[in-house]
Design brief:
six-stranded mixed sheet; alpha/beta; four-stranded antiparallel sheet; 44% helix; globular; binds magnesium ion; binds adenosine-5'-triphosphate; 295 residues
Length: 295
């Protein structure tokens, strides 16, 4: 088994609520560890007063990501996938629990040395066009991290941008264009190139192909697999689509209402799903899993 690059321990993230301090919220966490156990949830509601209960988007998640591999995270809309992703890259702090990258707290790194953090971990977003600045050319978009994170001079940046364009199979002349001139698939290649510009070890891909047509999805998935092998990358691949997760993941965790309900190797999850919710997800995948999921 390869070494663990990222680990999450009992990670909780809440939104909203009474606006009390985290310390007083921490006390309530102790009596209300779960949102799926109705009675305890009601108790938390009673403590805060009706309407003041915070929404627990991520509810006690623990997981490990191994170097050079892909962890798939699958679950329906609203189950907390993006919240977890944002905590993994330090854009959001956990309400409680901890995420470590190479043994260092992501939350601390985000506070103390954001550049160091961003040289290690990068994110690719669901909406390829929306995540690119419409007023900047591809060159400006790709040069920004080269300058900010690696202090490259102009000549080095030019060379690296050409290399990045070739890595994601975009023609060199596209470098001077603006995001709106691209298709969704091309825009996502730019999103991937921007993540690669940081030269990271780990990339968190939050629904990277969900906005794309099926044929384009396959091309981008194959590019991601190719880049992983060439550049020795580790991926966390998030999707609501089990079929997509199956094509790219080594290990899979299934999330439901902020919690992990099942985890295993890709083979285990797809050949022998144990949790009722995983079976339900599998039964909605067209084609090959249907009969097995029903059986
Ligand atoms: N900034 C926020 N403020 C309040 N609630 C939020 C915020 N962001 C997310 N939520 C809520 O937290 C829960 C988890 O949201 P999250 O975006 O993490 O889910 P997701 O699994 O990524 O969903 P999707 O598949 O739609 O992207 C949802 O109920 C969502 O409405
Ligand atoms: Mg999301």
């Amino acid at each position: 088994m390869s070494e663990v690059i990222l680990s999450a321990r009992d990670v909780v993230r809440e939104y909203g609520g009474s606006g009390r301090s985290n310390a007083s919220r921490g006390k309530v966490d102790a009596v209300a560890p779960s949102r799926v156990l109705g009675g305890l949830r009601d108790r938390a509601g009673a403590i805060f007063g009706i309407g003041n209960t915070p929404l627990r988007a991520v509810d006690g998640v623990s997981l490990e990501v191994r170097r050079g591999r892909t962890l798939g995270i699958v679950g329906e809309s609203g189950c907390g996938k993006s919240t977890l992703a944002r905590m993994m890259v330090g854009l959001l702090a956990p309400t409680s629990g901890n995420i470590e990258l190479d043994g260092r707290s992501v939350e601390e790194l985000a506070r103390e040395d954001r550049q160091k953090l961003h040289r290690k971990v990068q994110m690719v977003f669901q909406d390829p066009l929306g995540s690119l600045n419409p007023r900047k050319t591809v060159r400006a978009i790709l040069e920004a991290p080269l300058k900010a994170l690696h202090g490259m001079d102009q000549k080095a940046r030019r060379e690296r941008v050409a290399e990045l364009m070739s890595l994601v199979s975009l023609r060199a002349e596209f470098t001077e264009r603006y995001p709106h001139e691209f298709s969704g698939g091309q825009a996502q290649r730019i999103g991937i190139a921007r993540a690669l510009a940081a030269d990271p070890e780990l990339i968190i891909l939050d629904e990277p192909v969900s906005a794309l047509d099926v044929s384009v999805q396959a091309q981008v998935l194959s590019l991601l697999a190719d880049l992983q092998a060439r550049l020795d990358l580790t991926y966390v691949f998030i999707s609501h689509d089990l079929a997509v997760v199956e094509t790219i993941s080594d290990e899979v965790v299934v999330m439901y209402l902020g919690r992990i309900v099942e985890r295993g190797s890709r083979e285990e999850i797809f050949a022998d799903p144990r949790h009722e919710y995983t079976r339900l997800l599998l039964s909605s995948v067209p084609g090959k899993h249907r009969a097995r999921a029903r059986a």
